[in-house]
Every structure is written in structure tokens, then in C-alpha cells.
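Progress report, Aim 2. The chain analyzed during this reporting quarter is listed below.
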Amino acid sequence: MTEKFRVQVLNHISANGLRRLNSDRFAVSPDIADPHAILVRSADLHSVELPGSVLAIGRAGSGTNNIPVAALSARGVPVFAAPGANANAVKELVLAGMLMAARNLDGALRFIGELDSQDPELETKVESGKKAFAGYELAGRTLGVVGLGKIGCLVADAAIKLGMHAIGYDPEITVDSAWSLPATVRKAEKLGDVLKHSDFVTLHVPLVDATRGMIDAAGLAQLKRGAVLLNFSRGGVVDEAAMMDSLEQKHLAKYVCDFPGPQLDHHPGVILLPHLGASTREAEENCAVMVADQLRDYLVDGTIRNSVNFPDVSLTRESPWRVAIANANVPNMVAQLSHEMAAAQLNIATMTNKSRRDLAYTLVDVDSAIPPAVIDAIAGIDGVLRVRYLPLGN
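Predicted C-alpha cells for the chain:
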């Protein structure tokens, strides 16, 4: 009987996503021992000792800050995410954030909440008090979008449809994103160009060393006086101390943030949301389905799609016997792999090899069963991180 792949689920994951891991091939449970894969949303894996049985991690979301990606890379373990699956949900929340800031809805809601609904002077107090919350319209204003991935492109498109102008900045924009970016979006060559010319600036970049604190005191000083900064990216992208100082100086008008922290609490210029970016039924289901499909295809066929640490690699099967190799991206690796197979009289039917920074990944289909000794020999090659034998039916 074929051994099932064991998948441990550490957070609530949409049932439609879990159904992609059919019970014939997969055992899925929160309590499963020695898992082959872990499916997670927000659980912090940095403090968890991940067993040697783990072959892959699936994050039902776009960010992977809760996962020790570097340590897993060293073990030859891909980390999968669901980029773009929550994009529409985040886009709609960004629009809500802009409207809240422009129309002073947060203050207006607090004002109404503090009134006595039974007060005979209620109508008079409402009419006299609303003057403090007069705002402005979005049409004709300029939105600066920092990060032009799926979310950034959707936000820019929605803003244009509301009558806004859009300017975008992303030094690492992909070809797919460039194609989906509306033609009317003005492209900036540097971050400062976005900050200087925007009434609203929205951030959609991952939190990595290069982006940590990217909106600092110098950047905030370049903003238009009265601008609104929206952060639906990660809290660490903004230097919060510098941002609070800009608010105190009345340079920055509002900071809309989806990542609450003690420094931000109760400041009248800060609109805080409880990390709602992907918190819709649709987004949670989309993320779960996408990442479950990716885990299934990797465990069964070795296919890699949307990994944050490995290249995308797929290969149409030309035989029942397949081997998948994760290795350091060093010279002569493919030649060594081919040599071990040739020495065992194995004929290669088809092969693909791709690299991403320090890591490479190879899929090889051969015309006959691969003896365990060959798998061991490949595993012993200097630089090979992990070898998986994936014959059909196993």
C-alpha cells in the first residue's frame, strides 16, 4: 500500500483548500507526527523545532516572516506562499483606508459614539460637531504606489477608476506586473519621486533587509505637507518613531496601518486596523487552495511553483521514475548528477535544472527504476541538500 504524505495544519485553513489534499494520498491533521509538510497561516515557526521529516512548508498567505526561510533553504526545503491570492481583499482595504483618512471617518465615528442618542439636543450637536470632520474627495488627487506586484497594480488601477492620478515605484517589477500595470500609471525612477508628488502613499513591499525602515525621517520629510501614508505591507517597513514625529509636526496628516503596536495606540493621526488585509472569506479560501495545490504538486511530482526560496520548476513526466534534487547553485552539479546515473546504466528521458540565487533545483525522469544506491550516491555529492525519489504509484 502506498504511504500517505503526512501534512500538519497549524492554523485554521479553509476546508476547500484542505480538500485539495485528497485522503487517498494525504493524511491531514493538526496533531500529525513526523509531518512531510506543514501548512500554516500566522503560527510562528521560528521558535519551533521542525523535524527532519519536513519536506516543504506551505504558508496560506503572501508574507513568510513567521517562517525561518534561510534555515529551511539550508536543508533543501522549499517554502511556498500564495502571492496574489489575497490581492483583491487588500486592494479594497487600501481604498477603505484612503476614504477613512480623506473623510475623517475615524474621528467622526468616535464623535458619534460619544453622543447620547437620547439627548434632546442630539441633532443640534451633530450639526455643530460635524464641521470638525470636513474632508476632501479622492478624485484629482495623486496616489503613490510603492511596490508594483499584484496588490500594487490592483490598487493603482482602482485609484485611477476613482478619478485619481497614480505614480508607481518598484525597482524589481516583474514582466507580469509590468503587463498588468495600467498604462496611465506614471513610473518613478526612485522612491523620492513618489514621496514628493503624492497626496497618498501606499506601501506594498515585503519586509526584508532592503525594505526595513525604508520610510524613514528623510523620506517622510520629502512627503507633501498633509499627505497620508498607508501601510498594508509590514510594520517594520516604516520607521515608526520618525513617523510619529512627522505627525506631531503636522507634516504627515494621517498614518493608516494594518499592524497595531503600542507606539501607535490612541494617537489621533493614526488609523489602526487589526491586520485585516487578507481577512475575507474569499481571500482565505483563495490562499488555502493555492498553497494546498502547490504542496500537493511538490510532494507528488516535485513541481515547484510560488516558492519564496527556490526557482519555479516543472517538468511533464516522460516516465514513471523521477528524482528531484535540491542543491547549492555551484558549477558542475548537473554533470555530476548525470555521471552517477550514467554509471548505473540509467538512461535520462528528460531533465530540467533551474537556479535562484544560491539554490538550484533539478528534476530528472529516467527510463527505468532507480536503485537505492544511486539515490545515496547523488545525496553524497558535495553541495546536494536533498534528494527525493518520486516514482509513480509511491
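The chain is about 30% helix and 20% strand. Residues 281-301 form the longest helix (21 residues). These observations will guide the mutagenesis work planned for the next reporting period.
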